[in-house]
Amino acid sequence: MKSIVEVKNLVKKFPVGAGFFTALNGVNLQFAEGEFVGLVGPSGSGKTTLLNIIGSLDIPTEGEVVVLGKSVGQLTLKQAAKLRKEELGFIFQNYNLLPVYTVFENVEFPLLLLNMSAGERKKRVMEALEWLGLTDKVNSRPAQLSGGECQRVAIARAMVKRPVLVLADEPTANLDSANSHNILKMMLKLNKELKTGFIFATHDEKVIGYLKRIIRLEDGKVVEDKIPLAPKGE
Fold first, then answer.
1. What is the rounded distance in angstroms from the CA atom of residue 13 to the CA atom of residue 25?
2. Which of 166, 209, 211, 224 has its CB 3.0 to 4.6 Å from that of 216, i.e. a possible disulfide?
3. Under CATH, domain 3-226 is a member of which superfamily?
4. How far apart are CA 66 and CA 60, in angstroms?
């Protein structure tokens, strides 16, 4: 399969007092299109930092990260925003829904940044809501939804433009077990049907059980990269 992300000798340092904290230290990885993969490790292992650099929300201190043929560290702010706008989807643990907007308007928001007609936007939004079983919530606002429903809206928002890659940072952190499994099954279904790649940053064993590839990080280094024998949903 075609490689869509290449991580080469990646080092990321953050200033702390008079010195630096090394969050990532010599990371080398490749991700192919359509993968369902997790960056797994305890807090402080570097998984969210790596996810943010892949998502062009941050840049390397040393080394290179190439996403869809573009070197993240060489992009201007405008070019990085264009990459996120057109090719990437994001799912966050706190949903980040706009409280005054309806479900429809929250899901439509990424499409407003693209050159798309109102008719096409409506078609895309309703399609995404149907994927996630949310057509009956189209006019609801976030405060009227459960946590599981809010996360489904966040997934619909990430998927509405049919991105090549979705980056999910602890997407089940605020959900109970039943909702977590439902959300993961939905994401796995979208991965299979739409061939969208998913990269998770997580330490949730429920998420890990569904992953088709597990990359473990400790202290900013990759300590394991394996294909599990029998992930759920297979």
1. 9
2. 224
3. P-loop containing nucleotide triphosphate hydrolases (3.40.50.300)
4. 11
State the Cα–Cα distance between residues 140 and 127, nearest whole angstrom.
Answer: 17
Q: Which residues pair with 38 in a beta bridge?
A: 200, 214
The closest alpha carbon to 3, from 31, 45, 43, 41, belongs to 31
Six-digit token string for 165: 């890659």
**Residue 42, burial from CB neighbour count under 10 angstroms (0-12, 13-18, 19+):** exposed
List pLDDT tens digits, range 55-98: 999 999 999 999 999 999 999 999 999 999 999 999 988 889 99
In a 13 Å sphere around the CA of 8, the CA atoms on its Cβ side amount to 10
Residue type for 36, please? Answer: F
C-alpha dihedral (52, 134, 109, 141), degrees to nearest 10? -100
User: Nearest Cα to 134, choosing from 111, 100, 167, 157?
Assistant: 157
Length of the chain (residues): 234
Q: What is the pLDDT of residues 153-208, one digit of tens each?
A: 999 999 999 999 999 999 988 888 988 898 999 999 999 999 999 999 999 999 99
Closest among 206, 212, 170 to 51, alpha carbons compared = 170
Per residue in 23-51, pLDDT (tens digit) is 999 999 999 999 999 999 998 999 999 99
For the chain, the domains span 3-226
